[in-house]
């Protein structure tokens, strides 16, 4: 596999080359195509900001619109890398590609059509179109290396500063859009962008699972559910949620729901260790939430009946699972085979979220009136370690008294 590994090639060339070698060994004699992606039209000749495909970034680092990585089988086994890149105003194509990607065989994007034509009759897999290749790459990405974990730590640290920015304007904010704008500003100053659409849900908007309209008002007695993450220049992202009392103090009902979700998350953390089922933290959190829903008078049946897999009465108020994988995508590794994720075992190097929540719709007659319209989620980003886990977002206050102090 031909790559340039000089000082100019960057510190990640060796890591990227090792990933390409693993991919090569899994698909001998097959041409592998990994597109970086194209610009998406917003209107007429205006485009959305480009974000490289995650698989391309995983194998080579963030790429430019139209770039294509082709892994071409060699006669003696293995693959050569051929990188098609657009012209660049910092110098020649060879200079740009060698410096950033460390690939020797670089060609202009204009040569992609004749190259693809030359592949007629050969076995070809495209990461954007062939499930076999997309699945293999998803499963490669299940276990993060030390660089990836460091990037996720960086994302979390910037995200914490963005949350601080939000809290700084909270006393005078009038609308959810102001919350979104404050967070986005930090994401653009210190990172590449937000990793996904920010959820800035105030009041009963927090009961909507993914409220991204962010066009509501900020009222002093309400809570703000802020689910947001900064994407680093490497394209790794954080995904953190905190539910904040806008006035600086929870009401009695708000605190009761918040404390229940907080204890559910503590229970989930206790089941984070290698060898456990991926769903073990979820099961632990649901047990706490279901008992709490009974104590609050929301559920009026026995604990066993509420937890019965055929009934799952708690799901009306919990809405989602407690965890998903995290990395280059906010919902990472989504095309892995189910026996690996989500029905596999936790392993060191897996990065995931722990995010229990309770959501009481404002018009739900099964809920006591005093609780209607309350939505609470607490979400942290963790990496499984050989001895348990590391909470990458541990510096975000989450205990109720700490949250009040943070806001006040």
Task: Give the secondary structure arrangement, pairings included.
Elements: H1 13-26, E1 31-35, E2 41-43, E3 46-47, H2 54-60, E4 68-73, E5 79-85, H3 93-100, E6 105-108, H4 112-118, E7 124-126, H5 131-140, H6 146-169, H7 176-190, E8 193-194, E9 199-202, E10 223-228, E11 230-231, E12 240-245, H8 252-269, H9 280-295, H10 303-307, H11 315-318, E13 351-354, E14 357-359, E15 375-377, E16 380-385, E17 388-391, H12 400-407
Parallel strand pairs: 1-7, 5-6
Antiparallel strand pairs: 1-4, 2-3, 4-5, 8-11, 9-10, 10-12, 13-16, 14-15, 16-17
Helix pairs in contact: 6-7, 8-9
Give your account of this protein's structure.
- The protein has 408 residues and is of the alpha+beta class.
- It folds into 2 domains: 7-140, Creatinase/prolidase N-terminal domain (Creatine Amidinohydrolase, Chain A, domain 1); 146-407, Creatinase/methionine aminopeptidase superfamily (Creatine Amidinohydrolase).
- 33% of the residues lie in helices and 17% in strands.
- The chain has helices at residues 13-26, 54-60, 93-100, 112-118, 131-140, 146-169, 176-190, 252-269, 280-295, 303-307, 315-318, 400-407, and strands at 31-35, 41-43, 46-47, 68-73, 79-85, 105-108, 124-126, 193-194, 199-202, 223-228, 230-231, 240-245, 351-354, 357-359, 375-377, 380-385, 388-391.
- The chain has a 5-stranded mixed beta sheet with strand order 6-5-4-1-7. Strands 9-10-12 form a 3-stranded antiparallel beta sheet.
- A hairpin with a 2-residue loop joins strand 16 (380-385) and strand 17 (388-391).
- The radius of gyration is 24 Å and the shape is globular.
- The N and C termini lie far apart (57 Å).
- Mean pLDDT is 94; it is low at 1-10.
């Amino acid at each position: 596999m031909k790559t340039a590994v000089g000082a100019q090639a960057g510190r990640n060339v060796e890591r990227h080359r090792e990933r390409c070698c693993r991919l090569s060994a899994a698909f001998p004699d097959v041409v592998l195509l990994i597109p970086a992606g194209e610009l998406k039209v917003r209107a007429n000749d205006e485009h959305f900001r480009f974000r490289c495909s995650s698989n391309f970034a995983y194998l080579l680092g963030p790429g430019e619109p139209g770039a294509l990585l082709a892994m071409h089988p060699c006669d003696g086994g293995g693959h050569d890398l051929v990188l098609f890149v657009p012209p660049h105003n910092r110098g020649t194509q060879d200079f740009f590609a060698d410096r950033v990607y460390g690939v020797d065989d670089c060609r202009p994007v204009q040569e992609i059509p004749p190259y693809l034509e030359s592949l007629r009759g050969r076995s070809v897999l495209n990461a954007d179109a062939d499930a076999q290749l997309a699945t293999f790459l998803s499963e490669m990405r299940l276990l993060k290396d030390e660089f990836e974990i460091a990037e996720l730590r960086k994302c979390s640290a910037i995200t914490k500063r963005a949350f601080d920015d939000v809290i700084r304007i909270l006393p005078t904010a009038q609308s959810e859009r102001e919350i979104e704008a404050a967070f986005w500003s930090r994401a653009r100053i210190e990172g590449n962008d937000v990793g996904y659409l920010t959820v800035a849900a105030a009041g009963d908007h927090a009961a909507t699972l993914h409220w991204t309209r962010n066009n509501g008002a900020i009222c002093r007695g309400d809570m703000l559910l802020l689910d947001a993450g900064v994407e680093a220049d490497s394209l790794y992202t954080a995904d953190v949620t905190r539910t904040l009392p806008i006035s600086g103090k929870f009401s009695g009902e708000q605190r009761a729901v918040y404390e229940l979700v907080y204890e559910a998350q503590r229970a989930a953390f206790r089941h984070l260790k290698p060898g456990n089922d991926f769903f073990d933290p979820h099961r632990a959190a649901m047990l706490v939430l279901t008992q709490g829903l009974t104590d609050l008078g929301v559920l009026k049946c026995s604990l066993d009946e509420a937890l019965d897999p055929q009934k799952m009465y708690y799901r009306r108020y919990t809405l989602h699972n407690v965890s998903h994988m995290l990395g280059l995508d906010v919902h990472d590794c989504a095309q892995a085979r189910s026996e690996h994720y989500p029905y596999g075992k936790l392993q060191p190097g897996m990065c995931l979220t722990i995010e229990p929540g309770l959501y009481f719709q404002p018009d739900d007659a099964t809920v006591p009136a005093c609780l209607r319209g309350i939505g609470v989620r607490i979400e942290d980003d963790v990496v499984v370690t050989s001895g348990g886990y590391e909470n990458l977002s541990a510096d975000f206050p989450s205990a109720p008294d700490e949250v009040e102090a943070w806001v006040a």
